[in-house]
Amino acid sequence: MGEHWALFYDLVNKLLFSLVLTRERTIREMTVELAQVRPGEKVLEVGCGTGNLTIVAKERVGLTGEVYGIEASPEMIKVARRKAARKRVDIDLRVGLIEDIPFPDDQFDVVLSSFAISHVTDDKRKRDGLGEIRRVLKPGGRLLFVEFEPPTHPVLRGLATLVVGYLLGGHVMMQYTVRQEVPRLEAAGFIDIEAGATNHWAFAFVRGHVGRA
């Protein structure tokens, strides 16, 4: 994949958000709100793509906070860095994998991931990734995943399947709900786990905490 793919990814995101009748920025703001991101906190986004959520998270933590993003694709990171520089947002964006997060233990108050965990289809890689997220979170730290939620109404589901299949080649999104991650979060040692609908019909979330020592 080249940089053109990363730019195409941004375009596809805009099309998908327009199809569910919302602005991408609105969903990014909803995500940092669900994670209860506060000024001064240290935040990591796993699977940051081209940096849209990472930028919004930095706006929320302010000058006293820190925001980092990791992404497997160097091309995505290149676009994200250019975007952050254009907006004059100070964030640290690195190439990295969920199963090998390039940070020491107990670093972050919050780990976010939106529309990324559904791409991790290998069960071992996902288990290892959740273990890594728990490792880099501070005691009391918070994890939040937000993902597309396939419609339950058969007509809407059929329409969504056609649209997603056309734009993303029949992506696993249509067979996936983030609520499936609850047992994995429990197995990874997260507590106070919640899963449910967001304030937008097309998206759901799961979140949990790391226990305090």
Key traits:
single chain, 213 residues, alpha/beta, Rossmann fold, seven-stranded mixed β-sheet, 7 helices, 41% helix
Task: Describe the protein in words.
The structure is a single chain. This protein is α/β, with parallel strands linked by helices and 213 residues long. The chain has one domain: Vaccinia Virus protein VP39 (Rossmann fold), CATH 3.40.50. It is built from 7 helices and 7 strands, in the order ααβαβαββαβααββ. The chain has helices spanning 3-19, 24-34, 52-61, 74-87, 123-136, 154-168, 182-187; strands at 42-46, 66-71, 92-95, 108-114, 137-148, 191-197, 203-209. The chain has a 7-stranded mixed sheet. Strand 1, helix 3 (52-61) and strand 2 (66-71) form a beta-alpha-beta unit. Helix 1 (3-19) crosses helix 4 and helix 2 crosses helix 3 (52-61). The mean pLDDT is 87.
Brief synopsis:
By secondary structure, this protein is an alpha/beta fold. Helix content is 41%, strand content 23%.
Summarize the topology.
Layout: H1 3-19, H2 24-34, E1 42-46, H3 52-61, E2 66-71, H4 74-87, E3 92-95, E4 108-114, H5 123-136, E5 137-148, H6 154-168, H7 182-187, E6 191-197, E7 203-209
Parallel strand pairs: 1-2, 1-4, 2-3, 4-5
Antiparallel strand pairs: 5-7, 6-7
Helix pairs in contact: 1-4, 2-3
How many strands?
Answer: 7
Apparent shape? globular
Assign the structural class, choosing from mainly alpha, mainly beta, alpha/beta, alpha+beta, or little secondary structure.
Answer: alpha/beta
What summary fits the major beta sheet?
A: 7 strands, mixed
Q: Helices and strands, in N-to-C order?
A: HHEHEHEEHEHHEE
Low-confidence stretches: none
The overall number of domains is 1
The first-to-last residue Cα distance is 43 Å
Helix segment tally: 7
Strand content: 15-25%
